[in-house]
Write a structure and sequence with these properties.
By secondary structure, the protein is of the alpha/beta class. It has helices at residues 2-7, 12-17, 22-49, 52-67, 70-124, 129-141, 144-151, 155-165, 167-214, 216-221, 225-279, 284-306, 308-327, 384-391, 414-417, 435-439, 448-457, 461-465, 484-496, 514-529, 564-572, 587-597; strands at residues 344-351, 361-368, 373-377, 399-404, 407-408, 421-424, 502-506, 533-537, 549-554, 557-563. The protein binds adenosine-5'-triphosphate.
């Protein structure tokens, strides 16, 4: 027994790591199915043992009371108590198995579901609904309703017993059972649509609330509370309305089902008494036993009607989970590739946010050699951030190819490519973890030497030393709050962690002060001398000294690309005009350029 329970026990290491591959998921689901089958067998045994009470009652009334045998009474009582102990044990083990199955589901699917949410979340806005769905399925599997559902297949055995007791009582019970099943079907038909609507609107309301909570300060500063509440409330109200519709139908049909069950008990007692009066074909003990057996035959059906809402919601959650897992890119992991050379090449790159949409990037081709720092400028909406996200593999190109060291980024798994890439996005958000863990990309045991080396490269070692607990300062949620500039500098250290081959920085100096900008220039020069390929998107002139090449992006196309001096000269000199003598690329020139494009 213990072995059986252990076989569905979640593995703590897996729960902690959260990593599960598809063959492990299949194995886990097989184990869960086996656990459910075992729970089903227990249910069968339990239900047969449940006959103890009617049998005991029948024998005591019909045999013991007539024979007046105390010995028989004692023996029957001992047997009945033994059966009750077995019932108690089986019930406990069944519940334990179901709880473990639920936990195994969580540990097996939790990682892949979060993984799938992270892969598809940003584009589809699906957020972490998958984890909530998984929680719902887990709670359902370990709920008493599942035990009731396991009892349902035994109902025909009880009905057969009723026919054995008396065919009329059998027909009566069968009629009531069919009526309850009919009520269950009607319930399902009428509550499916409103339940789906309720779930959909409640997920939308939750997503809105999450975004509002993330922007709490903006909301507070600009007095947006009423509008936020109204916007959230519209979805929450729709969800409540739909859930209310489902509940009302459920309540009415639930009441009808309960009435049928109780009515059957009275009908059996009444009709049984009539049979005794009419032809004395039944004894009093049998009538009482028949009443109990019929009640047990209908109880699981009745419970299924009552718990239909949870059953339907859990079923919908399970289907969503399956869809999400199917939607996440699967298949065999790409072959492990050797560490790439720091050479980026982009060929005819096209990006469409969705099929049929206007392309954001229209066939870009360029390359960045090791030790080069390319600055990308261009007006707002030109596609700079989209290009950055493509270069680091955060999104996939619609057409064209991006190669790092000759290998297409699409041929790398994100886990294998990640260590070779450094990325600072436009909106820097750090994770709720220590500064060291943030720099080490959330590693549980960050390598101190590599962390400090990255911090030194990003010129933020002294800044981190000045924090209350230095590298161990915990950030985010209830932790230490950094300024925008401090966050950007630590994000820069995170980008440099582990000496990546390609570093892409999307406006990393947007909130830096002059000291921070100087530090950024030093960092870029160090990256350059260590042979990294760097791409920096900027609207500010201060990084100009660190650039070796420049690109002007406009309307998704490269308008100019080449050495810093060439690009700047081409920008300030109308086509066809001779080059002004001694013109030097300097900060003022870039200021004029950015004034034109910003
Ligand atoms: N997932 C998406 N769905 C729809 N449109 C998108 C998507 N991603 C980008 N775009 C569109 O692509 C265009 C370029 O966006 P992008 O953020 O790359 O511009 P940008 O040059 O970085 O602008 P800025 O300098 O203001 O940050 C915008 O018009 C944007 O609306």
């Amino acid at each position: 027994m213990e072995k059986l329970v252990r076989s569905v026990t979640p593995l703590s290491t897996k729960a902690e790591s959260g990593r599960t591959n598809s063959s492990e998921i299949r194995t886990d689901l097989r184990i869960c199915r086996r656990g459910l089958a075992v729970a089903g067998l227990f249910s069968l045994a339990l239900n047969l043992l449940m006959l103890t009470i009617p049998l005991y009652m029948m024998t005591v009334y019909d045999r013991v009371l007539t024979s007046r045998s105390e010995e028989t009474l004692l023996m029957l009582s001992i047997l009945a108590v033994a059966a009750l102990v077995a019932i108690g044990l089986l019930e406990a083990v069944r519940q334990l198995v179901l709880t473990r199955v639920a936990a195994r589901l969580q540990t097996s699917l939790g990682g892949p579901i979060l993984d799938a949410s992270l892969q598809t979340g940003k584009d589809s806005g699906s957020d972490v609904q998958g984890l909530r769905d998984l929680d719902q399925v887990r709670q359902f599997v370990s709920s008493p309703l599942v035990s009731a559902l396991f009892d349902a297949p035994v109902a025909p055995i009880y009905l057969a017993l009723m026919f054995l007791i008396h065919p009329h009582l059998g027909w009566l019970s069968l009629g009531a059972a069919l009526l309850i099943v009919f009520v269950a079907i009607v319930n399902q038909r009428f509550s499916r649509k409103p339940l789906a609507e309720a779930t959909q609107h409640s997920a939308a309301a939750l997503r809105k609330a999450q975004v509002q909570a993330r922007n709490a300060e903006v909301v507070r500063a600009m007095g947006m509370f009423p509008d936020c509440v109204e916007s959230w409330g519209a979805d929450a109200a729709r969800s409540l309305k739909a859930a209310g519709r489902a509940s009302t139908r459920n309540a009415v049909l639930n009441g009808l089902s309960k009435f049928l069950r109780l009515f059957l008990q009275i009908a059996i007692l009444g009709y049984g008494a009539y049979l005794v009066l009419a032809d004395n074909s039944l004894s009093a003990g049998i009538i009482f036993a028949a009443s109990i057996i019929s009640a047990r035959a209908l109880a699981p059906l009745d419970q299924a009607v009552g718990g239909w809402r949870s059953l339907a919601s859990a079923h919908q959650a399970w289907r969503r989970l399956q869809q999400q897992l199917r939607a996440a890119p699967a298949g065999p992991a790409p072959m492990a590739l050797p560490a790439p050379e720091a050479r980026l090449s982009v060929d005819k790159l096209v990006f469409l946010p969705e099929a049929g949409a206007v392309p954001v990037l229209k066939g870009l081709s360029f390359s960045v050699d090791p030790g080069e720092v390319v600055g990308i400028i261009g007006p707002s909406g030109a596609g700079k951030s989209t290009l950055a996200r493509l270069l680091v593999g955060a999104i996939a190109p619609s057409a064209g190819v991006i190669r790092l060291g000759g290998d297409d980024l699409q041929n790398w798994s994100p886990e294998a490519l990640g260590p070779h890439i450094g990325y600072v996005p436009q909106d820097v958000e750090l994770f709720p973890a220590s500064v060291a863990q943030n720099i080490a990309r959330l590693s549980g045991s960050p390598d101190p030497e590599k962390v400090v080396a990255a911090a030194r490269m990003a010129n933020c070692h002294e800044l981190i030393q000045s924090l209350p607990q230095g590298y161990d300062t915990v950030l985010g949620l209830n932790g230490y709050a950094l300024s925008g500039g401090q966050r950007q500098r630590i994000a820069l250290a995170r980008a440099f962690f582990g000496n990546p081959r390609l570093v892409v920085l999307d406006e990393p100096n947007a909130t830096l002060d002059s000291q921070g900008e100087e530090a950024l220039i030093v960092a870029l020069r160090q990256a350059q001398s260590s042979g990294m390929a760097c791409v920096i998107i900027t609207q500010r002139t201060s990084v100009l000294p660190a650039l070796s090449k420049m690109m002007l992006l406009r309307d998704g196309q490269i308008e100019a690309f080449g050495s810093k001096d060439e690009v700047m000269k081409s920008l300030i000199r109308p086509a066809g005009q001779p080059e002004p003598a001694g013109q030097k690329a300097n900060a003022d020139t870039l200021a004029r350029i950015t004034a034109r494009f910003g």
